[in-house]
């Protein structure tokens, strides 16, 4: 399984223990550390050794750069050191970059800013002022220049642990958004196809328009809902209220014409010691008894419901006498 490759960039002699600690931490995280002294950088004979370091950065996913008080080896390609050039390569290649600066160096950097034009100023934490010039350059970048001071390797590893956890969480969120965008695009394509279909059929003769109406009618949600509440395995189909009544009669239902409900028509069916009530909202049909097109109504599953009551409870409810019925 592929694992993230993490390039460790720093001077060697003064920060070798930090580099070893970072190597151990990266391995515990399940990632693959890349550092010069462990032999992870393949060198060739065609170019200078430092060039292979820069090329290796291009194959890595993350670069962890540590800046201490030593300038390190001078690059043979520029006025920068090799470790500084590694950071510049990571910036130019837009790698995920984390920069750590020794706390003493970072604090003394403020003194450098006030005295950088004074050539006689002596600095305690660095061997060459070019280090402070490079820090100033890094901090001046518009992006991809996160800088964090440290005292111990643990400061670095704890910061990286939090950062990488946040990166993983953001990756998961982006994956969810990718799925949502994909769904939206598919829905948009479907809607576009339907729009073209409607436009095409609308431009044809009346027979084709009738075909469009049949397509829309055949997918009416009332049919699926009725089949679900009645517990039948096939889709019910009806175009008028009269056809619905005949369908329900075939299943043993009888319309309760005396229910008195102003919004629903009710059909009942006796099943042993129980009574099943099937309620259908009258608004589902037009005044002449034809089913309303799906686009003409806002469908709600509550428009077709079914409930089963005990026959004894139903009888008790119907025969219950209120105080108003008592003649004395």
Architecture overview:
- The chain has 328 residues and is of the alpha/beta class.
- It has 2 domains: 164 residues, Rossmann fold (3-Layer(aba) Sandwich); 101 residues, no CATH class.
- Helix 3 links the parallel strand 3 and strand 4.
- The relative contact order is 0.07.
Search tags:
alpha/beta; four-stranded antiparallel beta sheet; 9 strands; disordered C terminus
Shape summary: elongated
Q: CA-to-CA gap between the ends? A: 89 Å
Strand order of the largest sheet: 2-1-3-4-5
* Poorly predicted segments: 321-328
SSE order and pairing:
Layout: E1 5-9, H1 16-28, E2 32-34, H2 49-59, E3 62-67, H3 82-92, E4 96-102, H4 103-115, H5 130-139, E5 147-150, H6 153-202, H7 206-218, H8 221-230, H9 241-250, E6 254-255, E7 264-271, E8 274-281, E9 304-310, H10 311-319
Parallel strand pairs: 1-2, 1-3, 3-4, 4-5
Antiparallel strand pairs: 6-7, 7-8, 8-9
Helix pairs in contact: 1-6, 2-3
Question: What is shown here, in short?
Answer:
The chain is α/β, with parallel strands linked by helices and 328 residues long. It has helices at 16-28, 49-59, 82-92, 103-115, 130-139, 153-202, 206-218, 221-230, 241-250, 311-319; strands at residues 5-9, 32-34, 62-67, 96-102, 147-150, 254-255, 264-271, 274-281, 304-310.
């Amino acid at each position: 399984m592929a694992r993230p490759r993490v390039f460790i960039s720093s001077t060697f002699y003064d920060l070798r223990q930090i580099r070893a600690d970072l190597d151990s931490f990266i391995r515990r995280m399940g990632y693959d550390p890349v550092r010069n002294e462990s032999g992870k950088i393949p060198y060739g004979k065609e170019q200078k050794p430092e060039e292979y370091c820069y090329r290796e950065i291009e194959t890595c996913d993350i670069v962890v750069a540590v800046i201490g008080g030593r300038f390190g080896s001078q690059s043979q390609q520029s006025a920068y050191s090799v470790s500084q050039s590694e950071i510049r390569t990571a910036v130019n290649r837009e790698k995920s970059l984390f920069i750590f600066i020794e706390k003493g160096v970072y604090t003394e950097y403020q003194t450098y800013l006030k005295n950088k034009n004074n050539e006689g100023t002596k600095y305690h934490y660095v061997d060459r002022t070019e280090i402070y010039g490079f820090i100033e350059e890094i901090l001046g970048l518009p992006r991809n220049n996160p800088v964090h001071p440290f005292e111990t390797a643990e400061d670095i590893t704890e910061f990286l642990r939090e950062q990488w956890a946040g990166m993983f969480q953001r990756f998961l969120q982006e994956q969810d958004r990718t799925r949502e965008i994909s769904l939206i695009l598919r829905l948009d394509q479907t809607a576009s196809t339907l729009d073209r279909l409607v436009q095409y059929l609308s431009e044809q003769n009346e027979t084709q328009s009738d075909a469009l109406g049949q397509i829309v009618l055949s997918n009416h949600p009332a049919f699926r809902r009725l089949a679900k509440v009645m517990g039948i395995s096939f889709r019910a189909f009806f175009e008028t209220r009269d056809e619905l009544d005949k369908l329900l009669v075939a299943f043993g239902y009888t319309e309760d014409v005396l229910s008195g409900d102003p919004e629903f028509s009710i059909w009942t069916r006796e099943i042993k010691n129980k009574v099943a009530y099937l309620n259908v909202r009258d608004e589902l049909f037009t005044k002449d008894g034809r089913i309303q097109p799906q686009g003409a109504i806002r469908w709600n599953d509550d428009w077709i419901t079914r409930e089963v009551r005990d026959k004894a409870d139903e009888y008790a409810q119907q025969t219950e006498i209120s105080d108003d019925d008592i003649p004395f």
